[in-house]
Specification:
single chain, alpha/beta, Rossmann fold, seven-stranded parallel beta sheet, 12% strand, binds NADP nicotinamide-adenine-dinucleotide phosphate
Length: 311
């Protein structure tokens, strides 16, 4: 072989190895080092001690875990969900931690002004520093098997609500920065399903891809004032993921929320927990045909569990 070509190949090989090593180091930093660091002082110092966080979907699952952890970091809370009795229980539980808690009961499957107005009104007199858009809903079926009402509900809850509340509440976050000099945080919850084309849950995947494409550009538009995280977890043991228990891939919502809070302000987009990031990396390496077959089989199985629950 021509010696010049050999030298070129050696340089190319060294470059590829360097890029792989840097990618791996960054992965370890994001998914292993950051979650190991204590967050209490960091979050309250960064976003302002005694400021308020609004969390949607806060009465259960991941939203509840975000609320509990933000309360433990000293943030006062506005909790938004559908069922008043669950919100009341959460309010009583969190107030014992010495934080103030407001609740707003709203069914966001009705995407009208009258649904969102009370949510906007709830923060008007508050110093809002953190917004977690966590409400979400899913359906697992072949596309034509999705009832029309479910299709409308998914678009209202996942797409319309995330876009509207981000638009409505962003000015409050910017006011917080202007008034206090502290940064504000926006965490929009998507899903790994939004990162891949996912047969069997194509509509949910499209909604979650929408959330990612809405969220990430805001990190640049408001880079002086705002920390933005497009959070894309995998399976968590919540009501939404019917029948799943913590296991190799399935983590608890508390683990997921802790990972997200450790990364906000450091990265713009994340799967949160290292196990979920590893799974996403494995999925990305699979040939598309194999991945599609796996996804469809898993989605249809979850669809059967949903049907059994009457969804
Ligand atoms: N679970 C998973 O495996 C998984 C994986 C990836 C991403 N995610 C995403 O993570 C987020 C949280 O999921 P989760 O599993 O924690 O869900 P979950 O346990 O089912 O909790 C859903 C929360 O959203 C509220 N909610 C649902 N529909 C609503 C509506 N129409 N109006 C108002 N509130 C409504 C519920 O309120 P009520 O209790 O009052 O009904 C509850 O507080 C979602 O965005 C989901 O897409 C979940």
């Amino acid at each position: 072989m021509n010696p010049n070509v050999l030298v070129l190949l050696q340089w190319l090989g060294a470059f590829v190895l360097l890029v792989a090593a840097l990618t791996w180091v960054r992965w370890l930093w994001q998914y292993v080092c950051l979650p190991l660091q204590a967050q209490t002082a960091r979050l309250s110092q960064r976003y302002g001690a005694g400021s308020w966080a609004l969390i949607t979907g806060a009465s259960d699952g991941l939203g509840k875990a975000f609320a509990q952890q933000l309360a433990s970091h000293g943030f006062h809370l506005v909790l938004v969900a559908r069922t008043p009795s669950k919100l009341d229980r959460m309010q009583a539980e969190l107030q014992t931690q010495g934080v103030q808690v407001r609740t707003v009961a709203a069914d966001v499957s009705n995407p009208s002004d009258s649904t969102y107005a009370p949510i906007a009104a709830s923060v008007q007199d508050l110093d809002l520093s953190v917004l977690v858009n966590c409400i979400g809903t899913t359906v697992h079926r072949r596309y034509t098997d999705i009832p029309a009402a479910s299709l409308r509900r998914l678009l209202a809850v996942n797409v319309h609500t995330t876009a509207t509340l981000t638009h409505t509440l962003l000015p409050a976050l910017l006011r917080h920065h202007a008034a206090t000099g502290h940064r504000a945080a926006l965490i929009n919850v998507g899903s790994i399903v939004g990162r891949f084309y996912w047969p069997g849950t194509q509509l949910y995947g499209a909604c979650k891809a929408f959330i990612d494409h809405l969220t990430v550009p805001l990190a640049f538009e408001y880079r002086e004032q705002l920390d933005v995280l497009s959070f894309q977890p995998t399976v968590m043991s919540t009501a939404m993921a019917t029948g799943t228990e913590p296991a190799a891939i399935t983590i608890t919502p508390e683990q997921a929320a802790r990972a997200a809070l450790s990364q906000v302000g450091h990265v713009v987009s994340s799967h949160g927990h290292w196990r979920h990031a590893l799974l996403a990396a494995v999925f990305a390496l699979l040939p598309a045909g194999r991945r599609n077959a796996l996804f469809l089989a898993a989605a249809l199985e979850m669809g059967e569990a949903e049907k059994a629950k009457g969804e």
